[in-house]
Amino acid sequence: MNSKFLIPAAYIAICLFWGSSWLIIQLSLPYFPPMMNIGIRFFIAAVVILLIMKLNNLSLHLDSKSIKIYLILAVFSYAVPFWMVYWAEGHIPSSLASILFGVYPFAVAILSSIFIIDEKLTSSRFVGISMAFIGLIIIFSHGLKVDIENYLTGMILVVVSAILQSGIAVMIKKHGGYLNPLSMNFIPFLIASIGLILLSFLVEDLHRVEFTVLSISYILYLAIIVTVFNFTVYFWLMKKISVVILSLTSFITPIVAVIIGWIFHGERLTENVFLGMVFVLFGIIIVNWQGINKYYHQRFFKSM
Fold it and tell me: Potential cystine with 21: which of 39, 202, 206, 226 (Cβ 3.0-4.6 Å)?
């Protein structure tokens, strides 16, 4: 398939699946506490990746640089940030978590402008990211109450998680381009899963763990679709497009989550949702304006 169509299709797909993950995570938490939940999810993902690697004769990079990247990914992109978000999901409203995670594109834009030569934080990028972030606030502003006393820990964890993951995204963009988008996640997922499951046995109450058809289906969806597929596609896209543009998925996924809530839970779409969507859309267009302008400029001269 032509990359002109494959790249947008892949971008849309990860937005849809990550948008659905907010609801599925919340539905799965009553059956599994956070560490066990993520640990099982990552272990299944690692097994699936290994099977795909065997079927496609994919090899692992095991040089010292790759091992360092795997270890950093395992701890600072998967184990720690995911636990932070899962824990926060159980203590603060998901709408607030969505807004706070909006610092991710800002952090990516700032860090990439410092560490990656081709990723400059232009005025249009800053304005576009800011506009999309305002849109996110508008979407979730209706009825949102911020109880600082009870929400502060969860709020801090979401922000720290976003910053950690932004740093990892920039690192992979700069140093991990040679790694296969699929196989590069096998060791990190395996390490993260083993560590989280062991910690879960030590610190979590496992009496409420419940294996049912429904709970297993939640974990399988999160493991295979949201983890294996999305992270493979995400790292593939990282080789094709700007890491800043890729980070804008964190503005789109909450909108997907709102629409899913409207379809499956009968949640009401308020005027704020539609207004916020407009802000997010125009913000994304502004960030991408240079690329859009270049694309249509090339098409115009080709047609002449």
Answer: 226
